[in-house]
Amino acid sequence: MEEIQSQSDNYRSSSSSASSPASRVPSSNFFYLRKPGSVRQPISFEDSPEWEDTDNDVRVEEGGDSINVAITPTSPSLSKLNSGSLPSPPLPERAVVARKIAGASVVWKDLTVTIKGKRKYSDKVVKSSSGYALPGTMTVIMGPAKSGKSTLLRAIAGRLHHSDRMYGEIFVNGAKSRMRYGTYGFVERETTLIGSLTVREYLYYSALLQLPGFFCQKKSVVEDAIHAMSLSDYANKLIGGHCYFKGLPSGERRRISIARELVMRPHVLFIDEPLYHLDSVSTLLMMVTLKKLASTGCTLIFTIYQSSTEVFGLFDRICLLSNGNTLFFGETLACLQHFSNAGFPCPIMQSPSDHFLRAINTDFDRIIAMCKNWQDDHGDFSSVNMDTAVAIHTLEATYKSSTDAAAVETMILRLTEREGPLLKSKGKAGNATRVAVLTWRSLLVMSREWKYYWLRLILYMLLTLCIGTVFSGLRHSLSSVVQVKVTSAITWTS
Questions:
Q1: Mind listing the pLDDT tens digit for each residue in 276-325?
Q2: Neighbouring C-alpha atoms within 13 Å toward the C-beta of 483
Q3: Gap between the terminal Cα atoms of the chain
Q4: Measured between alpha carbons, how far is 3 from 438 in angstroms, rounded to an integer?
């Protein structure tokens, strides 16, 4: 007990020294002063003072074309789950083992995206962004609203609008090539699900419409997707919503959207805002599920606006954007060090993502102006003098001259100097198969959604009887036709 108490005292003393008034403002103030100065040590917010575990690091061997996973000692991680320090429990009997996925390395270099204004392509949404994503890792693109997160994600996936223009290079396994159909999956921010189908039926019809091959093979793919997204408890439940009183929660619906892309068994999975409209519990469950999916070898790239401390600890790499500019790319802990070096250390009692967005979100300038007006009248909020434009410029300049940017350039060079195996498309389902599947699915949906389809059928039948009675006395002569027309006109006008 004395040894543990001494370690705890040492940890508190080091934390208090790092958060002294000379280096940072107490965490009770939301707005705080920027204190330029010397390089600071990274600030850890873990409860345990000792972290002597190892982490999985993906590296490229000099003499080979493939990317291998090596166990190398790393810096203290943000989470025991991320660092791998928790022992793996033994698998129970009849447990389903996750299928391994052959991921792919994705590199984007000097990527610039412009959108068409009123006259010409002048608005740069993404400006000279560079980064990479490796198999078995989660790479997150973070930033405030309208910072270019979704545009960068679409540019890497090759799903930009036809009017947008992209400049730069994208490499997949070291080769300049666009990802083919079936080699990657893209999950939109908002997706539409068929509420009258169960989760298993919805994924099964999705596999029939996308994958070639026999039906028995597609059933195994669907079961793998259900297991990968932890949907086994909801597999036989209706998705619901729309014409049903109650549907599945938003977290499960979001995981169903991701599972729909997993039936293709993609090498790379792109997700636009996986935590969109999710509460804290669903958010943590979603990220733990995605972390488990990444452990199978899949390359995950997704955007995110904000996250809690626990969720932030699950990320492998972070790409921080603001107004299209890349303020940082690298490991999550290195991002904390980067902000500390630039003069914006993270307070101990504040989430890292909250701290990042507070420093680079220009929308806070309006709050600062409001607080300054309140300060003139009441004398409070004396610490509100942090200009986000100055913070963005300082962070960008610090990153360009840092060793993190040099390390990214070196890694990009190593990943692109040799070409790896090309990603091959798995093919598509035939047109006849798609027509048959869509017809059968439509009949099944119509048989269940009686409020829309059966009532509509009854109304059409009544309308048919009404129109049929108008022409019931029609004869073959011209005069009878004219008489029926006059009678029908009088009927409709009256």
A1: 888 888 888 999 999 999 988 899 999 998 888 888 889 999 999 988 88
A2: 9
A3: 96
A4: 68
